[in-house]
Amino acid sequence: MSTIRSQRRGPMRERSRRAANVSGLAIAFAALFWGGLAHAQSAVGVDFGLYFDNGTRTDDERIGPSHEVERDEVTNARIASVSAHYLHALSDEPLHGFRLGGELVYRGERAYRDNDDRRSAMGTVLELGFRGDWTAVVAPSLGLTLGMRVSLAVLFVGGELEDEITRLSDEGVSVGTGPRLGVVLIPSFGLRYALLERLHLRFDLGVGWSYLDGLDLDERVQGVDYARTLSVSGTRIEVGLGAEITF
Q1: What phi, psi does 39 have (nearest 5°)?
Q2: What pLDDT does residue 30 have?
Q3: pLDDT tens digits, residue range 91-101?
Q4: Where do the domains of the chain lie?
Q5: Residue 127's closest CA among 187, 245, 210, 42?
Q6: Mean pLDDT taken over the chain
Q7: Which CATH number is 41-246 given?
Q8: Predicted TM-score (pTM) of this structure
Q9: Which of 8, 81, 164, 202 has its CA 20 to 30 A from that of 155?
């Protein structure tokens, strides 16, 4: 009996030692990682930008057997935006290495013009998302930056879209007036300049893609099947100037 118990304890002790070693390595790695972050530089910043959308507005409506699709090439009527961001560096060098964080962008009224110069507003847009960049020093106090932004766009309904929602509701369609969602994906490159030790200026140029949902309906109204989707998607070019304070 004692021999069997000792044989059982052997593997158990071995597994315990392995678990302790793994736990020790994990704790050591976490300590090194967070210790590095503690010495790294964080930054808060404000950007002022101009953006240019070139896309397609698609209105797909199905009433019973009838099906109609309208596609219009559109551009954004409002081009100015302002944003605030926070970035945490993964190294302690001011103009070198990776930084990760988030941002909040105010786009204001989202309105489009088609080829006939007809203007159509959808409401007000805010974007909340993740932001990261990598910087390499190319000259004293100057760094070249490559970045990526992935954002969730939130549309607060207004303008002609709100009027259309009201019309549909009056006709018996169950359509809400709550926020609509979209997505933005913008790779970018730019420059960061250390004007002072804690004050950096930045310039960014991004080319990416955006999508915004306006309507997504599929129901039965007064005995008739009704489905409709309304969305805008396309390419986006964005130019931004900003300032950051590091700490």
Answers
A1: -95, -5
A2: 42
A3: 888 788 999 99
A4: 1-39, 41-246
A5: 210
A6: 87
A7: 2.40.128
A8: 0.80
A9: 202
